[in-house]
Design brief:
Elements: E1 2-7, H1 28-34, E2 40-46, E3 67-70, E4 73-76, E5 102-106, H2 129-135, E6 140-146, H3 148-161, E7 165-174, H4 178-190, E8 194-195
Helix pairs in contact: 3-4
The chain binds zinc ion.
Zinc ion (ZN) binds next to loops.
Length: about 200
């Protein structure tokens, strides 16, 4: 069984969002095109409480882009984004999200970030994505979404580790930084991810 996993296609990462990614709206149409080819479509959502550790606003004197240590893990500081129940955390209305069967929420613990849709950054807690897919007999997963060098990369690397045949659909992803994105793609490829 094959599934499509849509990573963090949420208003805050799109044009005019609080963590706007350049040209990110370009992923929506390709996703709408392919979504009907899958009987199982799952989406991840970044889903932060207001006091989330990744928000620079929660660290007086720090700025967006600063890297701090949290429990020995590097934590990049971001603008407030994808706050639970906010408009910024919604899917864009232009995304054909009606066929999404399951939404996996990540980054819900205020103390730790979660780039991967499978585990938090410390790999302490599972989000339930792997169990959900395995329960549905999924063996092959195609990925699209935002952003290439963070949440897409860490999600697909965990996907490989979880034993899924893993592919990334290139016109369905977008990164913040071109160089970092291409580095991330090379890393995915070297770990066995197929890039389409
Ligand atoms: Zn986040």
């Amino acid at each position: 069984m094959k599934a499509l996993v849509i990573v963090d296609v949420q208003n805050d990462f799109l044009i005019n969002g609080s963590l706007e990614v350049p040209n990110s709206n370009d992923v929506i149409e390709p996703i709408n095109q392919i979504i009907k080819n899958y009987t199982l479509v799952v989406a991840t959502k970044d889903w932060h409480p207001l006091n989330h550790v990744s928000f620079s606003s929660n660290h007086p004197g720090k700025e967006v882009g600063d890297v701090i240590k949290v429990d020995n893990l590097d934590q990049m500081l971001w603008p407030d984004h994808c706050i639970q129940e906010s408009k910024g955390s919604d899917f864009p209305i232009t995304l054909n999200f009606k066929t999404i069967k399951k939404i996996i929420y990540k980054g819900t613990n205020p103390q730790i970030d979660s780039y991967s849709g499978f585990y938090d950054n410390g790999k302490i807690r599972s989000t339930g994505l792997s169990d959900y897919l395995k329960t549905n007999n999924v063996t092959h997963i195609d990925y699209v979404g935002l952003v290439t060098e963070y949440c897409v990369k860490f999600t697909v690397l965990d996907s490989i580790e979880e034993g899924f045949k893993t592919r990334v659909i290139l016109n369905g992803i977008k990164g913040i930084d071109l160089k970092e994105s291409s580095k991330a793609l090379n890393e995915m490829k070297s770990k066995g991810v197929d890039l389409l």
